[in-house]
Design goal:
alpha/beta; six-stranded parallel sheet; 14 helices; 9 strands; globular
Length: about 375
Amino acid sequence: MANRITLNQTSYHGKGAINEIVNEAKSHGWKKAFVCTDPDLIKFGVTKKVTDVLDKAGLSYEVYSDIKPNPPVENVTAGVEACKKAGADYIIAIGGGSSMDTAKAVGIIMTNPEFADVRSLEGVAATKNACLPILAVPTTSGTAAEVTINYVITDVQAKRKFVCVDVHDIPLVAFVDPDMMMSMPAKLAASTGMDALTHAIEGYITKAAWEMTDMMHLKAIEIIGRSLRASVKGDAKGREEMALGQYIAGMGFSNVGLGIDHAMAHTLSAFYDTPHGVACAILLPTVMEFNAPASGEKYREIARVMGVKDVDKMSQEEYRKAAVDAVRQLSVDVGIPQSLKDIVKPEDLDYLAECAIKDACAPGNPRDASKQDVLDLFNSLLK
């Protein structure tokens, strides 16, 4: 079986990368942008950094900012109508996963109108056409949505998230500019950064992992492990390194999938509106312990790039524990809660486990997990 790698056509990295938007728009001959962003980014002047670039170049655009965290189906439906009304021929997505995911769903439906109900795109979508061209500008260092073929939408009525996987939704160009991430508050830097680490670790041990993605994921773990603490403190170099680390993680996991950490985290976000990165981070050490028997020697390499000394002198049991401990310590250091007791209601556990097992991320887990396994994992974090 052949391994496939799908990446952006082009990506720009480093300070000032957003200035390249003008050249890309002009070279493609696009006429009007549909700018997907969220209200907070407008409020704090982050979106303006991009629209100022467009204004200076005389490029036409219309802003759509009615995007909520964990974007619901309704955001997508309204976005499609707004995009049509604007007469836009490309999209500029500015934000974290919420803006990016909304933009991908809107872009796909614009060119594949038979999927007008975004719920019909759940799983591996059978679309025929590339989405409306997307230029992606991340403002958080975590989701890597600017380089992935995935997006996640919330069905509020059903209290569930659903994952859509489609090679046609990947942004055409990514602009990974650390200046766009400098305004992140510490809590957001921590949660999105731990989401990026979860991407890298789950992608590294998933069933579909192979040599090329292993290379990406290990490098991402190394960068995140050494820079996340500084990023949370607002350090400029830490933010710049995290911008790169999370993107590299996205290059990998987008092509090989994730596991039950993300499957369980999706249910927590849908049911309790828990920030996605926080949910992933709380679960990560416990899920790593569960997956250890199916990880081969990979936890030794995780421990090594996380800075653990003398891993080659350790037994398998020792280096597996060392890897989990290093991840748990990083989570503690950046202020992530270590329990679900203030989030999860015991009476909801059965439904949460059922949703997690049905999530599109679950089959990629290196160790097959039953509904009872997931229930046990949730229960272990309620103490």
